[in-house]
Amino acid sequence: MESIGSANALWWLLSLGMVIVGIAGTVLPALPGVVLVFAGIVLGAWIDGFARVSGWTVAFIGLLAAAAFAVDYLAAVLGAKKVGASRLALVGAAIGTVLGIFAGLVGLLFMPLIGAVIGEYVALKRQRARGDAVLAADGTVVLDAAVPAGSSGNAGQRAAKVGLATWIGLLLGTVAKIVLVFVMVGVFGVALWW
User: Fold this and answer.
1) By the 8 A CB rule, do 43 and 50 touch?
2) Does residue 173 contact residue 71 with C-beta atoms inside 8 Å?
């Protein structure tokens, strides 16, 4: 009988560990945070045969997990698209986020911004090299030949504007994802102990 109790304790430790690492993963891009939190919750519900945390509760938490994924993705994309960001701005923000892990909290906050600015700057330079139309910082369409040095069509200004909008979208998405993850854990806790 004691081996059953110690086995349950190990399962609970694994479940708790998955949730804790998952919560950290909501801000650390190297970890699949929402997936780990949800997996830990499903394991916790399974331990007692879904007696205290029903399958319906787990399904609801699953919907919250799906919403966390969607909000995180959509916030970044909508922030970038609102100002006409290029794909390279999004890629730059993603690379900046990963590199930010190694620079601590400041890196996690600001490396996505720097990455988005660099990505957009590179995209604008490539567009101009091809002779494509480029959006100016004020939203007007210009050709490279029509852009005098230091005008509002400056690639640096445009890249900064796009980088800032992409970064704000990423931050808002992360905040929403964190809120949803804590709601997931809260629903699980209420169901478990209520």
Assistant:
1) no
2) yes
Give the CA angle between residues 10, 16, 20 to the nearest 5°: 145
Q: Cα-Cα-Cα-Cα dihedral of 177, 181, 186, 188, to 10°?
A: 140
The span from the CA of 139 to the CA of 82, in Å, is: 11
Which residues is 135 bridged to in the sheet? 141
Token pair in block for residue 11: 């399962």
Give backbone dihedrals phi and psi of 149, rounded to 5 degrees, phi first: -55, 135
pTM of the model: 0.74
Question: Average model confidence (pLDDT) for the chain?
Answer: 84
Q: What is the pLDDT of residues 78-97, one digit of tens each?
A: 877 788 888 898 888 888 88
Domain boundaries, the chain: 2-193
